[in-house]
Every structure is written in structure tokens, then in C-alpha cells.
Amino acid sequence: VQLQAYGGGLVQTGGSLRLSCAASGFTFEDYAIGWFRQAPGKEREFVTAISRYGGNTFYSDSVKGRFAISRDNAKNTVYLQMDSLKPEDTALYYCAAGSSVIDGQTPSRYDYWGQGTQVTVSS
Predict the structure, then answer these.
(1) Beta strands 9-12 and 117-122, pairing class
(2) 108 phi, psi to nearest 5 deg
(3) Looking at residue 23, what DSSP letter applies?
(4) Do the Cβ atoms of 114 and 5 come closer than 8 Å?
(5) What is the pLDDT of residues 65-106, one digit of tens each?
């Protein structure tokens, strides 16, 4: 099982990035996918999640209206489009897959976690 997050980088305030999460080793469409982030000295924070076939999406209040999650089950990939980025969005972003995810916010409901990709927003 592998989840590979990539697409992070350095961007100025107000800029955009698109993260991708590529999955392998399990039946992708059987799993909801979530994104979490962790900034230095802070706890891991829920960002967004998408249901197995993309019919339901969930966002934290801090990113609602700025971030958009989508998935392509044919490519075993989930995307996170991040617009209007702010310095407080700076963190290591992780994707995770869960077969019993309800609203996406509970880390313990996720079965697999990928390595993170760093997003840095300069002011």
C-alpha cells in the first residue's frame, strides 16, 4: 500500500498550488481520501476529505471557499486545488485513505497514510 503526496512548494500569499495524492496497492474506489496538515509546533489538522466516488466533500472552516478536493478513480489519484493561499496555510500536507470515514475529520478512521508534501506560503 502506498500513498504518495506531491505538488508542494513555495508560493507567495494569494497564490495557488495543486497537490496530488497517488495511491497504489489497494482498491482505490473503496476508500475515502482525506488531507491533513501539520505546522511546526502544532497538532495535525483536518483540511478536507472526499467520499469514495466523489459525491460528498468536507472542508474545514479555515479552507472552505479557497480549497477544492477532487478525485479521479481511473487514475487512483486525488487532487487538492489550493487558491488564495495564506501564510497560515504553511504546513506539511498529508493524504490518507479510510474505508470507514464518515465526515473525514477523525484521523483514527483512516487506514493508510502517505508521506507529506511541504507547502510554504510567504508573506
Answers:
(1) parallel
(2) -65, -15
(3) E
(4) yes
(5) 999 999 999 999 999 999 999 999 999 999 999 998 878 899
